[in-house]
Amino acid sequence: MKLKVKTCHFNYILGLLITSLVLLMVLIGFFYTPYDPNEMNVALKNNPPTLAHLLGTDNFGRDILSRVMKGAGTTYIIAVVVVIIGGTLGTIVGTLTGYFGGWFDEVVMRLNDVLTSFPSILLALVFVSVFGPGTYNIIIALGIIFVPSYARVVRSEFIVLKERDFVKNAKLMGAGSFRIMFIHILPNTRRVLIPALLIGFNNAVLAEAGLSYLSLGVQPPQASLGRMLSEAQSYMIDSPWYAIAPGLMIILTILGFSLISGGMENE
Amino acid sequence: MKYTFKKCIVFIISLFLTSFLTFTAFEVIPGDSALSALGMDASKEHLEEYRKAMGLDKSLPIRYINWLKGAIKGDFGYSSSYQMQMKVSTLIKNRLIVTLWLAILSFLIIVLVSIPLGILSARKKNGILDDLITLVTQIFMSVPSFFLAMIITLIFGITLKWFRPGDYISPEDNFGGFLRFMMYPAIAVAIPKIAMMVKFLRSSLLREMELDYVRTAKSKGMTKISILFGHILKNALIPVITFLAMVLADILAGAILVEQVFNLPGLGRLLVTSIANRDYAVVHVIVLYIASLVIIINFIVDLIYQWIDPRVRRD
């Protein structure tokens, strides 16, 4: 048993390491990149990795390392906003349905079940086809699509917690429903809510990558991880390193966060 | 019986609701479909005539009912894209076959690979190996299937030349060649899902192994293998079935992206080009198709579930 705890920690620490590495790269990318990520240079078209350009250059002679740093930043910002929108709305819906129950809960949760059974990329595609492609549209689309998953997590915690003694005590002391819900119960859901937010971030990164890969998300010349993969697709034969750099960045991001959230759930 | 009946009702209502919601979503899109079909300089009389002929002058519920009448007969109207003034149903039929084959192949790969791997990984529950399995499954789960598709193209298509990238073989011309070509996209769709399945099956098996009946079986002197195959596996696979339904829906979604990488003429690619061309008639039908497939899969799973696990019926 003791060994198990130790091994859990190993993956958790590995996750922390990967995530801090990736985050550091992105944070630096907001202020400094080795080259201008959008600067084109015909002389450097499709160059393999060299000391001057650690990850090589793309079909316009742009530095891939700079573009990955900047592009990952764009992807992260999109993912964070999506999680904020989905997390906030989902928490509110989950709080209200979990605390009050009744027919309102029935109806909302049935709707939730229907929405979650559909793959999120399909829903996002419907949204984008109705409202048009673009960064803001995919943020709104994904934000709304993520609401049910958080609503479900928060709701199930509320159903358990609202029967606990500290809630009954608060009620006896005359605390209002609003206060009980948001001040007494909500902070206690963090044990499941934080891993859910991390997984949501991962799903948002994947969804952004997918939509931008289909040219429906971030528009050129702006770089994002999905956008770069889409551009790299045509140059797989001449410069495979172009696709590998943003792809690895996606994998490391997702791996880091899922190892961390896995470790948290095991605590 | 009551359970089945209830599930049937829910199934029909879900199909109905989905069709109505998708219909409404694509009806409220800003823009005049008469204008886009006839061109900007069409005369007023022409536009009126077109609207009347297509039933666009009626109210939304009536238009929906008219559409539904056609849809039940398999008539979904015409593609509004000017290059291909053709029936949506013919356009979709050939594409559907490609996507369905992709889904079937990847589903088979997932089931055939992940169940043995899941069982193997659950039998070795100790320290470092335990950790390694978690890490490996986590790594494979982190790879987006379309990036995997690009890597497979790079390794097997470009470097090893086992297949010609982008050179799709149609099933009518050469069915064997078609299947061989489809294996690559199917593997790309399958690998992340295999990792998910192994992780899920493993935890399901480990949970089951701690239950009392396993200890009873052990004390009766049964061997580990016969307990595993005779008792544990049957119970551990029950939650896996629900999980597989989710995976099937995910396969259909993953196919949208992977078809793009392999240049497969499937539903997903048609969906993406139709969105780019603003061909809403086609987008609508494809979304409806995929959504209905998801609902049908869930319905079938519900039925299978109550058949193998009688406890469900009592709830």
Describe the structure.
The complex is a heterodimer of chains A (267) and B (315). Chain A has 267 residues and is mainly α. Helices cover 74% and strands 0% of the residues of chain A. Chain A has one domain (57-252): MetI-like fold (Orthogonal Bundle), CATH 1.10.3720. In chain A, helix 2 packs antiparallel against helix 3 (102-117) and helix 5 runs antiparallel to helix 8. The model of chain A is unreliable at 1-7 (pLDDT under 50). Chain B has 315 residues and is mostly helical. Chain B has two domains: 2-88, no CATH class; 94-206 and 233-279 and 289-312, MetI-like fold, CATH 1.10.3720. Helices cover 78% and strands 0% of the residues of chain B. The longest helix of chain B is centred in the C-terminal third of the chain and has 39 residues, at 224-262.
Brief sketch in words of this structure:
Chain A is mainly alpha-helical and 267 residues long.
Q: Secondary structure elements and their pairing?
A:
The complex is a heterodimer of chains A (267) and B (315).
Chain A: H1 2-31, H2 64-100, H3 102-117, H4 120-131, H5 135-161, H6 165-172, H7 177-185, H8 190-213, H9 225-232, H10 241-266
Helix pairs in contact in A: 1-2, 1-10, 2-3, 2-5, 2-8, 2-9, 2-10, 3-5, 4-5, 5-8, 6-7, 8-9, 8-10, 9-10
Chain B: H1 2-27, H2 33-38, H3 44-54, H4 60-72, H5 88-123, H6 127-141, H7 145-159, H8 175-209, H9 212-219, H10 224-262, H11 267-276, H12 280-308, H13 311-314
Helix pairs in contact in B: 1-12, 5-8, 5-10, 6-8, 7-8, 7-10, 8-10, 10-11, 10-12, 11-12
Architecture of the largest domain in chain B, according to CATH? Orthogonal Bundle
Q: What kind of oligomer do you see? A: heterodimer
Largest sheet of chain B: none
N-to-C span of chain A: 13 Å
Poorly predicted runs of chain A are: 1-7
CATH superfamily of the largest domain in chain B: MetI-like
First-residue to last-residue Cα separation of chain B = 12 Å
Number of helices of chain B: 13
* Main CATH class of the largest domain in chain B: Mainly Alpha
How many structural domains are formed by the residues of chain B?
2
Cα shape of chain B: globular
